[in-house]
Design goal:
single chain; alpha/beta; 5-stranded parallel sheet; 7 helices
């Protein structure tokens, strides 16, 4: 069984939904390392009964901390229940997090249905050598 590193993030109006979803899927999280922002991390510790790598609250830099861990190759997947009906003062941070996940080829779930597909995939318990993008054209360009 391959150990996966998952980031769990939820906006205020989605925290209960993520907590309920995590409880239903608790068995999938037994062999995972979990990273979470602020209050979401506290809720996940209580819901899952395990230690969570708690980062800062999203608006205080937690979204960017998760983005950095994605870029470093630490995070294998992002489950981010965000509220499409609620304006967010840190919207640029959220867009940056989603952008970095897409850039580094990380699976992202933004709602319960997509999270179900990801967490219940056969790949969740297998070693998976995900294709890492080749940015050499970008990093070696003449400036």
């Amino acid at each position: 069984m391959a150990v996966k590193n998952v980031a769990l993030v939820a906006h205020d109006h989605k925290k209960q939904e993520l907590t309920d979803w995590a409880k239903i899927n608790i068995r999938y999280f037994e062999n995972m390392n979990i990273y979470a922002t602020g209050t979401t991390g506290k809720l996940m510790e209580e819901a899952l009964g395990k230690k969570i790598n708690r980062l800062l609250s999203g608006p205080l830099g937690g979204d960017q901390q998760i983005g950095a861990k994605i870029a470093e190759g630490v995070i294998d997947m992002l489950i981010f229940f965000w509220d499409p009906l609620e304006p967010m003062p840190h919207d640029p941070d959220i867009k940056a997090l989603l952008r970095i996940a897409a850039l580094w080829n990380i699976p992202v779930a933004c709602n319960q249905a997509s999270a179900d597909y990801i967490i219940r995939s056969p790949l969740i318990s297998e070693a998976y050598d995900k294709p890492r993008p080749d940015f050499s054209n970008y990093t070696t360009r003449q400036v």
